[in-house]
Write a sequence for this structure.
DNA sequence: TTCATATATTCGAATATACGGATATAATAT
DNA sequence: ATATTATATCCGTATATTCGAATATATGAA
């Protein structure tokens, strides 16, 4: 497979990764700010292994970046480098707007973020 | 599931449908013009049942529209009605650019279209 | 009616994906 | 060293998706 083939397969895998409810909810939360796994876990109200597994998929495709800070690992949305990647961001932005589920995610996230928990390494 | 849930599931299904090589190749061909199944079949160089099956998926999600003309059925790209659907079109446009496979699809399509075959119903 | 062409659907098999619970790893604090 | 917290990975199961070949349907022509 040539260079074009590889680019192609990568783009298709990226789109495929977007076509999953859990991953799309994660990406929508990351539009606003970077978040660690336990914050995402609280926002989504899903088991940790499930959140972590989806983050691994997103990371392997370059859709999120990770940054360690002590025991926390913070995930953030990737920075688009070309037109295709820009359209990926646009799709994330425009999808699930007015979705009750996404609203609840944000509500749960706010609750979690408002907890008094001090970041160890700051 | 409420109305938002249904919209959500529909959008996710649409994205999932984009995440398949065959369907993306079909949609890219339809960006330029409407095409019947046998033209798509020639362009993609894939068995008829496979092309037809993917068209059925795309039609069920409203990503393509169909129009009968005698024994031919012509498929065309859907018209976006909102921001999400516009971002779907953008993603189709921006994906697989400079892809060798898509170039070959267009070459095979040209060859097919240049064949002297008269449309029965025109 | 019969035939030919275009398209759709069915079938079983192969592969891929998503899941929760359990376990493993990694960093830090005591 | 041990305990604690955060995160990642493994495992078996369940479900979903894709495929080609074969068959069914639908239209129009002879």
């Amino acid at each position: 497979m040539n260079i074009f083939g590889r680019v192609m397969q990568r783009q298709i895998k990226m789109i495929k990764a977007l076509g999953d409810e859990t991953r799309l909810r994660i990406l929508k939360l990351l539009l606003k700010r970077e978040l660690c796994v336990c914050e995402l876990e609280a926002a989504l109200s899903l088991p940790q292994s499930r959140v972590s597994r989806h983050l691994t998929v997103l990371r392997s495709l370059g859709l999120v970046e990770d940054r360690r800070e002590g025991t926390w690992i913070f995930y953030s949305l990737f920075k688009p480098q070309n037109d295709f990647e820009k359209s990926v961001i646009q799709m994330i932005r425009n999808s699930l707007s007015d979705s009750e589920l996404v609203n609840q995610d944000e509500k749960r996230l706010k609750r979690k973020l408002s907890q008094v928990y001090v970041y160890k390494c700051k």
Chain B has a mean pLDDT of 91. The beta strands of chain B are 35-36, 64-69, 72-77. The first strand of chain B starts at residue 35 and ends at 36.
